Amino acid sequence: MQTRLGKRFWTAMLVFGLMGQIAWVVENMYFNVFIYKMFHATAADISSMVMASAVVAALTTIIMGAVSDKVGRRKAFMSVGYIIWGLSIISFAYIKNVVLTIVMDCVMTFFGSTANDAAYNAWLTDRGDETNRGKIEGFNSMMPLVSILVVFGGFMGFDLDEHSSWTAIYYIIGAATAVIGIIGWFLIEDAPDLKKSSQSIGEVLSYSFRPSTVKSNRQLYIVLAAFAVFGISIQVFMPYLIIYYEKTLNMPDYVLIMAPAIILAAVVTAFYGRVYDRKGFFFSIVPVMVMLMGGYVLLFFFTGTAPVFIGSLLMMSGYLTGMSVFGAKIRDLIPENRAGQFQGVRIIGQVFIPGLIGPFIGSAVLRNAEVITNSDGTTSFLPNRSIWLAAFIVAVILCLVMEIIRRITEQRKAQA
């Protein structure tokens, strides 16, 4: 029988999950557009920003996730973290160059990762169990798509070629994030069985990296490795996605194409968690890869409105259902009462490794990309379809990795 969590949990999850993802969408998909449009950033600049942010996100989640375990609290880290996160977003309204953007992106990532990657994700793990993780991850993984839709729709009212528009955007998103932090203080409830760790902070920090921990939780680390390959495939194209639609495909109204695809993909993701709950990890990962790779193929070969819409729908559906399936499996494998300590290794698989390797591959395949001259005499690069081919190749590697994991798992079951 599925454990019931109550309206207060689902409300808190909706509010914090959605606002957190809106803030991450602005960073992951629009900071690149910001420095591209305002400062004429190169592919190397964009790659450097993504990689620097990934490093900070990983280190922050490792440390702050463990600290939240040590003190036995998630609520304070979530609420206070969101407030400061919001204030740091507002600071981007005053930034005037690429270097300062990258530096402040790292500062903002510290507070965002503390509040969301470390505390919020540990809280979700605390509150769920084996009867409802698929449902939780289904809704949680839907949040990025819904947030993309919210951001796309909201940004349609702004001229992103004007700095004043970016100033307004940063104030709106930053203020909303901070307000959610205040609301959370009255809404969030820590898990009843969450307790302060008796271990030293050093022991808490090092636990998930010990060889003995890896050995006793081997399946968790293997799944995390597969998750990293999945993330690399996504990060090959994600930093350049909006620029590709708007500039390369010459679709200034890309939101009108993407919005329906996002809505449909969100519906698919919301219900897909039930597939995991009923059929398990290896069954549910197959349709994920079919959708993701099918989207890559269409986006590589076609540039017309209809195939781009279908390709985007498949790609987005594969991306978010994959996040749901991997997220649920990882939460199932995390030992009880150690959720915070394992957020660090989770973020290494989800953000750090993909954030280093994926943008590097994307930047490499775009090294000789077409260059255009802007109206002010400066130049900008145009992302090309090579990003889809590179992402597809990484996805093929993931399929091979998943087959190896499946065979090893079946062999161990047979031996047992």
List the keywords.
1% strand, 416 residues, mainly alpha, two-stranded antiparallel ribbon, 15 helices, Growth Hormone, Chain: A
Q: What is the overall shape?
A: globular
Write out the strand line-up for the largest beta sheet, numbering strands in chain order.
Answer: 1-2
Question: Overall mean pLDDT score?
Answer: 86
The CATH topology corresponds to: Growth Hormone, Chain: A
The N- to C-terminal Cα distance equals 27 Å
Specify the structural class: mainly alpha
Low-confidence stretches: none
CATH class: Mainly Alpha
Tally of individual domains? 1
| Overall radius of gyration | 21 Å
CATH A-level architecture: Up-down Bundle
Q: Using DSSP, what is the number of strands?
A: 2
CATH superfamily: MFS general substrate transporter like domains
Strand content: under 5%
> What is the H/E string?
HHHHHHHHHHHHHHEEH
Question: How would you characterize the overall build of this protein?
Answer:
The protein is mainly alpha-helical and 416 residues long. It has a single domain (7-191, 211-415), classed as MFS general substrate transporter like domains (Growth Hormone, Chain: A), CATH 1.20.1250.20. The protein is built from 15 helices and 2 strands. It has helices spanning 7-39, 43-71, 75-90, 98-127, 133-155, 163-187, 201-206, 211-216, 218-237, 241-248, 254-279, 281-301, 305-333, 339-365, 386-415; strands at 371-373, 379-381. A hairpin with a 5-residue loop joins strand 1 (371-373) and strand 2 (379-381). Helix 2 runs parallel beside helix 4. The longest helix has 33 residues, at 7-39. The mean pLDDT is 86.
